[in-house]
Amino acid sequence: MIVFQVYIVGVFVTFANAFDYVVIGGGTAGLAVASRLSEDSSVSVAVIEAGPNVEDLPEVFIPGLFGLSLGTSLDWQYTTVPQQNLNSRNITIHAGKALGGSTAINGMIFPRAAKQQYDVWGALNNDTSWTWDELLPFFKSSELATPPNQFQTDAGVRFDPSVHGFTGRVQVGFPNFFFEQAQLWEKTVEGLGFQISPDLADGNPHTVGIAPNSINTANNTRCDAVCAYVTPFTNRTNFDIITNATVSRIIWSNDTSKDDGLVRAVQVEYILANETTARIPVGREVIVSAGTVGTPKVLELSGIGNSTILRDAGVETLVDLPTVGENLADHVHSWVNSFTSLNLTQDLLLEDPSFLTEQLALWSENRTGVLSAIPSSLSIIAPSDLFNASELDALLEQSRASLTEMANSFSNGNENLAKGIAAQFEHALSLYSQNKQLPLELNLGSSYVGPSALSQRPNRTYTSINTVLYAPLSRGSTHITSSSPVAPPALDPNYYAHPLDIAMHVAGMRLARRMLTSPPLSSTFLGEFEPGAEKTSDEQLVAWMRANVTTDQHETGTASMMPRELGGVVDTNLKVYGTQNVRVADASIIPFPVSAHMSATVYAIGEKAAHIIKSGK
Ligand SMILES: Cc1cc2nc3c(=O)[nH]c(=O)nc-3n(C[C@H](O)[C@H](O)[C@H](O)COP(=O)(O)OP(=O)(O)OC[C@H]3O[C@@H](n4cnc5c(N)ncnc54)[C@H](O)[C@@H]3O)c2cc1C
C-alpha cells in the first residue's frame, strides 16, 4: 500500500504497529533499498520522504525540460559556506526534494566509473565484497536496459550486453535524436587519439561515446527511482511511503545494557508540512538514505557525531563518532563555451518561444523532438591526455611530498580520518601513475552551458564543453549548527583546496579548447565566448575558474564506509559504528570519489544494501 499523505491531528502521534524497516529519505538509494526489502511480504517497510510525489509534473517526466526544477521547491538548494578558494563565493548544491530524490531532477546520464576506482573502496576496507566485480551484479540488478535500435547504432551508440541488466528496475536506454555538433565532437575526440567506447558502463570509461540515459524508451519519459522502484509495486500492502514528512531525529532505546553498549533505534520522528510532529516505531532497522548532505544531518540531530559539534549545536551525544559529516568530496564543474555556425541547438528552447511550443507539441504528439531525450556524449580523461610523463611525475611528486600535511588539514583534527584520507591519496596517486585515475569528464553541451544568465549573453547558438573535475583530492565537511531540523547545515566542500585539483582542472580547460578548435568540430567554431580567448595563461584561466566554477552535484563521502581506525562512519555492512540497528545507504557512504555521474553507482549501493540486510548480516 502506498500512502502519499498521512493526516494526523495532535502533536505526537505514534503508529499502532512498528514497521520492520524504516527508511529515511525516499531518494535514489532509499527507494531501491525499501522496494527490494518489501519483496518479502512478511516484512513491513516504511519510507519517510521530505518532498512530495511529483511524477505527474511535466518538468519531471519530460526529459528535455531538465533544469526547470532547479531552484524550485523540488530542490533543497543547499548553500555552501563562502568557499575560500572560489573568491569566497557561496555555491548552491542542488539535490532533489521529492519522492525519487535527485533522480527526479537530474540529467539522466547513466554511465559507470572505472573498475579500479571501485576497487579502492574494497582496498580501503580490506574487503573484496566492495569491488567492481562484486558490484557488477548490483549494477545489473538495478537495470532494465533496452539495447540500441538500428538508428541509434548508426548514430554511434555502442552497447555491450554482457555488462547490462535486462530484468532489473531502472529503465535504461538511448536517445532517439542526436545533435549534429555532438556527432562532430565525437569524431573530433576520436581524431585526438581517444578510443570509441564499446560501452560507457563497462568499467573502462577512458574513451569517448554516447552515454546511456535513465529513460523509458517506450514513451521517452524520465525513469527516476519512483518509476523504477515504486510505480510497478503499488499493490504491495507491506510497502508504505509517507511524503512531505521531514525526519527530525532517530529516537533510541533507554536500555543499552543487553546490546554491548550499542545504541538501538526504536522510533523515527518526523515533521509534517502542517508542522505536526509524529513518530513511527521501528521493529528491526532504520536505514538512513537522506543523501550526502541530509544523512549526516539526521545522524547528528540524533546524537551521533562529533561531541563538540553536537554540544555546540545543543544536541546530546549518544555515540561520539567524530567523522560524521567529514570526508566530503564533490565534482567541480567548469566550461568552455563557443559560438557555433549550427542553427539547431538546444539554445532555441530558451531563445525562441515558438521553437519551444513546436517541440512541446512534437513531444505530446509522438514523443519525438529535442524534448524527448537528453543526449549525452562524453569522454573520460586520463592524465596522459593532459600531461607528458615528466610533467605528470612532477605533479605527483608534489602531491606525495605534501600527502600527510594535506590529509591532516582535511581531517578536522581527527587522527583516524587523517590516516583514512592519506590512504585514499596513496591509492589515488598510485592509480595516477598507472594512468588509471581519471581526473576529468569532458562532455558536449549542444547549447550554451556556463555561468552567464540568458540576459547576459549574446542571443546566439553555442557549443559548450562541460569540463568537470572527477577525481578531487580536496575534502570538506557538513555539520549541523543548531538542533533545529529545519536549520541548514554548515556545508563546506572546500573546493580547490588541493593543488592537484586545480592543476588537473585547468589542464582540462585547455583540452576542451583543443577539442573545440580541432577538426571536424572546428568547421562550426565561430569563436570562444567563455572563459574568452584572451585568457591564455594558466593564471588567467584559474582566476576565471575561481570566479565562476560550480558543482556537478555529485557530493559523496560524509558517512564514509571505512574502518573506524581510518575515520569511517559505517562498516562494510553499512552499519553505523556504535549502533545496533542503523545503516546508511546512499552516496554518503562512498569513501573515495569515482569518475562518473553518480546515479547508477548509488542505485547499485541501494541494491547491495538490500542484499546485505536480507542476508542477515
Ligand atoms: C541537478 C542534478 C543533476 C544531476 N545529474 C546527474 C546525471 O545526469 N546522472 C547521474 O548519474 N547523476 C546525476 N546527478 C547526481 C545523482 O542524481 C545523485 O548523486 C544521486 O541521485 C544521489 O542519490 P542519494 O540516494 O544519495 O540521494 P537523493 O537521491 O538525493 O535522495 C535523498 C532523499 O532524502 C530526502 N531527505 C533528505 N533529508 C531528509 C529528511 N530529513 N527527512 C526525510 N527525507 C529527507 C530527500 O528529499 C531525497 O529524496 C545529478 C544531481 C543533481 C542534483
Automatic annotation (TrEMBL):
Q: Which residues form the active site?
A: H554 (proton donor), H597 (proton acceptor)
Q: Which domain of life is it from?
A: Eukaryota
Listed InterPro entries: FAD/NAD-bd_sf (IPR036188), GMC_OxRdtase (IPR012132), GMC_OxRdtase_N (IPR000172), GMC_OxRtase_C (IPR007867)
What this protein needs as a cofactor is: FAD
Quote the Pfam families the UniProt record gives: GMC_oxred_C, GMC_oxred_N
Oxidoreductase as UniProt keyword? yes
Question: Which residues does FAD bind?
Answer: V247
Q: Which residues form the Glucose-methanol-choline oxidoreductase N-terminal domain?
A: 96-119, 291-305
Q: What's one GO MF term for it?
A: flavin adenine dinucleotide binding
Keyword Oxidoreductase found: yes
Going by the UniProt record, its keywords in alphabetical order are: FAD, Flavoprotein, Oxidoreductase, Signal
> What range does the record give for the signal peptide?
none
The text of the family note is: Belongs to the GMC oxidoreductase family.
- Which PANTHER family does the record match to this protein? GLUCOSE-METHANOL-CHOLINE GMC OXIDOREDUCTASE, GLUCOSE-METHANOL-CHOLINE OXIDOREDUCTASE N-TERMINAL DOMAIN-CONTAINING PROTEIN
Q: Mind telling me what this protein is named?
A: Alcohol oxidase
